[in-house]
Each structure stands twice: as structure tokens, then as C-alpha cells.
């Protein structure tokens, strides 16, 4: 028999309130709700009905969400999140440039070998481009929207990005 830790139980689902069609923004009493929302035989709501509902998160989830949003405004969080742009561009290069959206093989070990060999090939391409192309002819990558935003906010870029160490 397992004991369930009450602190780890999932939070209750969001509560809902139906909006009155006649007065926008107000919550309708059950007796004044439109008939399509009042029907007891109806077990699900259509997309048309969904737009008339307001969802309220439970207090515990609301407080967690507010704390997470406040943490996202801090400089350390933004600097840590900024590394994601470089990682996503590498993933995008693998997916779009080297056909890595789907594996060529079925087993996990063969797929792992495919990923490792593709990563080696990409690194060889990058080293070859660095060594054979003169610095004057190399076109720097255009900054992503996130990089432009960080520059605008005067947040320093992490050294992990590809432009690090280059003049």
C-alpha cells in the first residue's frame, strides 16, 4: 500500500463562470444563463460556448504563476534564458539543414550513432568554414529577435554564443 503525500497531490482544476451574453464582462446567475449553457443534458461545451467562460486558477496555482512571472523579470533569469537562443539555432540547423526531424533507424543505439555522426559532420563543416574563409569575407550571423532585445535592454550576452571571442 502506498501513501500519497498531500503536498504532492495535483491541484484542483480551474473553476469556471459563465458570462452573460447581454452584459459583457459580468457573470450570469444560473437562472439567467443562456439555454445552451443551462441544459442539463449537455455534457460538453462547443468552441462557441467556450468563449463565454472565464477560468479561475486555484489560489495555489495562481500564487505559483505570479511568483514565476516575477522571477522572469530578474536579470539573472533573463541572462540564463538568453542561452536558449543559441541552443535553439543549433537545433534548427540540425532539423532543417541535416534532416534530423526523423531518425533513419529504428533502434535507440543506431539513432544515437546517427546523432553523434551528424554532430561531428556539423562541427567539421564549421571548422572548415572558419579555416578556409578569410575573416573579411565571413558574414556574421544576423542577430535573433531575442539577441536584439537583450542588446536593447543592455543585458550582456553569455560567452556560450557563437559570436563570443570574435572581434
TrEMBL record:
Span list, region Disordered: 1-42
Biased segments, Polar residues type: 24-37
Domain of life: Bacteria
Domain Transposase DDE as annotated: residue spans: 52-127
InterPro entries linked: Tnp_DDE_dom (IPR025668)
Name of protein: Transposase DDE domain-containing protein
Organism in which the protein naturally occurs: Streptomyces avermitilis
Amino acid at each position: 500500500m502506498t501513501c500519497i503525500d498531500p503536498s504532492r497531490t495535483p491541484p484542483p482544476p480551474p473553476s469556471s463562470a459563465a458570462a452573460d451574453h447581454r452584459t459583457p464582462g459580468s457573470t450570469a446567475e444560473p437562472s439567467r444563463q443562456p439555454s445552451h449553457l443551462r441544459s442539463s443534458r449537455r455534457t460538453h461545451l462547443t468552441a462557441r460556448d467556450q468563449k463565454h467562460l472565464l477560468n479561475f486558477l486555484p489560489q495555489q496555482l495562481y500564487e505559483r504563476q505570479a511568483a514565476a512571472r516575477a522571477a522572469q523579470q530578474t536579470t539573472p533569469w533573463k541572462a540564463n534564458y538568453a542561452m536558449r537562443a543559441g541552443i535553439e539555432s543549433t537545433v534548427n540547423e540540425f532539423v532543417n539543414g541535416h534532416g534530423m526531424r526523423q531518425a533513419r533507424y529504428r533502434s535507440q543505439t543506431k539513432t544515437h550513432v546517427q546523432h553523434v555522426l551528424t554532430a561531428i559532420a556539423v562541427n567539421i563543416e564549421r571548422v572548415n568554414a572558419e579555416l578556409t574563409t578569410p575573416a573579411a569575407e565571413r558574414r556574421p550571423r544576423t542577430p535573433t529577435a531575442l539577441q536584439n532585445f537583450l542588446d536593447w535592454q543592455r543585458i550582456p550576452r553569455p560567452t556560450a554564443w557563437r559570436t563570443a571571442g570574435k572581434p
